[in-house]
Amino acid sequence: MSGVYLMISKYLKPLAEVDAAREDHLAFVDGLEKGGFSVTAGRQDPAAGGIILLDVDTQAEAEALIAEDPYVQRGLAVYTATGWHPTRGALAGYQRVRPSA
């Protein structure tokens, strides 16, 4: 059964350093979206980190994908993974949609 994982990041460096890598991070997130792995993403308010909602089968898969984030690779952020099955609201009954090859 597929699930979704809330990948919640915490910035480890000042925001100016994080923002210097933001273009690369956003390109990474764009790739996740094009691959059908990212359901939604955005920065927290206040800007202490961000959240990416990943559609993957396991926590290990979520962690492997997020390890490729430039923020992680450059030591700018760490993520925690929280599994989640939406049962109410806009994502209730969420179904995986992967682009055709």
TrEMBL record:
Residues 7-82 form the YCII-related domain. InterPro entries: Dimeric_a/b-barrel (IPR011008), YCII (IPR005545). SUPFAM superfamilies: Dimeric alpha+beta barrel. Pfam families: YCII. Belongs to the YciI family. This is Uncharacterized protein YciI. It comes from Actinoplanes lutulentus.
